[in-house]
Amino acid sequence: MRELRRMQNISQGQLAAALEVSRQTINSIETERYTPSLPLALALAQFFEKSVEEVFHVNGSR
Amino acid sequence: MSTGPVSRRRGVSCSRWFMPAFSVALGVIMLAAMWIGGHPASGFGALGVMSAVGVVFLFGGRSETIRGLRGDGRDERFAMIDLKATAAAGVVVILAVIIAFLIEVAKGHSGNPYSWLGAIAGLAYTIAIGALRWRS
What is the pLDDT of residues A2-59, one digit of tens each? Predict the structure, then answer.
């Protein structure tokens, strides 16, 4: 997600403001310390105009 | 399930003024209770402490912790943190009640009020489990 954000040249704060979450939440998602809820994950994917699978990956998925 | 824009909670409790006002109000209540109990000096001390807490809430907005406790800086991640912190605090209090009960009983006392507190905690937990299971 960090790569997608940097490609669009926006800061964590700007992304957070667009999605109405805190900057710390965006940072935690990018550093994989926090897994967003499904609505937030969908909102992030919609923001980047990607599918959820393109934005996120599941660790250890088969 | 809504897939619209994610938004933070809104409402009176999420205003940055709610927790400072609540802290001061609680301090006033504590003052009244201690005054009635014959300890007005302690009551003014409690009011001072709670007022200081209110000031921290009001002017500590740079801290995510303060904003989250205050209510206006909450999003889904902080709601999860709040839930886990509440559960952790509950476990600590229940453990303290159990330990205090055992100490009182070992001293030959009845165990009150810790036995009642422990029973209330167990009953509340069981009811919460049942209610949440029924709703989900």
Answer: 899 999 999 999 999 999 999 999 999 999 999 999 999 999 999 999 999 988 876 6
The tokens for B44 are: 């003014």
Most B CBs within 10 A among A15, A20, A22, hence the mutation to make, goes to: A22
Q: At what angle do helices A23-30 and A12-19 cross, to 10 degrees?
A: 110
Range B115-124, long-range pairs (CB < 8 A, 24+ positions): B118/B94, B121/B90, B121/B93, B121/B94, B121/B97
> How many beta-carbon contacts under 8 Å exist across A and B?
43
- Give the closest-approach CA distance of A23 to chain B in angstroms: 10
Which residues in chain B have their CB less than 8 angstroms from residue A39's CB?
Answer: 1-4, 6
Report the sign of the C-alpha dihedral through residues B117, B119, B120, B125, in that order: positive
* Interface predicted TM-score (ipTM) of this complex, two decimals: 0.82
B73 touches chain A (CB under 8 A): yes
Is A25 within 8 Å of B77 when comparing Cβ atoms? yes
Task: Give the angle B21-B27-B28 at the CA atoms, nearest 5°.
Answer: 90
Query: Which chain A residues have any C-beta within 8 angstroms of a chain B C-beta?
Result: 19-22, 24-25, 28, 34, 36-40, 42-43
Place B11 in a pLDDT band, splitting at 50, 70 and 90.
low
